[in-house]
Amino acid sequence: MKITQQASSDTVTLALDGELDASSSSILDESLGNPELLKYSKVLIDCSNLKYISSAGLGVFISHIKRLQDANVKLVFFNMKDKIFNVFEVLGLDALLTIVPTEVEAASA
């Protein structure tokens, strides 16, 4: 798993590349746990190169939702492949998280 971070004035985008499983979830946890993220109004998660997500990977996102919400930081996922979206949907996470098709929609969400 590789995570690339790109920031603008009020938004930071984390681009996920590879498989997000138990062995790589600590990388994501470190990125989302970075106190610097709280200075942005939005954290966008680019899933275009995310090939697989396990329950450990999902758990990392869930564990950071409250902290981000308390800091008024919106977490938005975009460019999610159908098989990844299906995992979120089956678990009901599509109702809890903001998931949009494109980066443009994510930026305006």
UniProtKB/TrEMBL annotation:
SUPFAM superfamilies, per database record: SpoIIaa-like (SSF52091)
Keywords: Plasmid
PROSITE patterns: STAS (PS50801)
Domain (STAS) ranges: 1-109
Transmembrane helix in keyword set: no
Database matches in InterPro entries: Anti-sigma_ant, STAS_dom, STAS_dom_sf
UniProt similarity note: Belongs to the anti-sigma-factor antagonist family.
Cross-referenced NCBIfam families: ant_ant_sig
Protein name: Anti-sigma factor antagonist
